[in-house]
Write a structure and sequence with these properties.
The chain starts with a helix and ends with a helix. The protein is an alpha+beta fold. 52% of the residues lie in helices and 19% in strands. It has a 4-stranded mixed sheet with strand order 1-4-2-3.
Length: 94
């Protein structure tokens, strides 16, 4: 699902880009690697919380990197449809 979102141009990556997107209210869901540095996690979660954006941290950095083909630990989905589909897939256990 993440790879599809990236190919569709609906995924942004990296702490700074995601944080800017959150402040601009363009990010619909944030995905943080479960093994991310605590200070980075706190910074992103703080901005996401201010904007009432859901944060998912169920995956390791290796899993996220494998899904999108790049080494990344902070991802942001900019499309509500992709975000909803991702959350649904996670709840289904896929």
């Amino acid at each position: 699902m993440l790879g599809l979102a990236e190919r569709a141009g609906k995924l942004v990556t990296g702490q700074e880009i995601v944080t800017v997107g959150l402040k601009a209210k363009k990010i619909k869901i944030v995905i943080l690697a479960s093994d991310i540095q605590p200070d980075t996690s706190e910074k992103v979660r703080r901005v996401a919380g201010k904007n009432e954006i859901k944060v998912i941290s169920d995956f390791t950095s290796n899993e996220l990197s494998h899904a999108i083909g790049k080494k990344r630990k902070v991802l942001g989905i900019t499309d509500a449809g992709f975000g909803k589909a991702l959350v649904q897939k996670i709840h289904e256990g896929v």
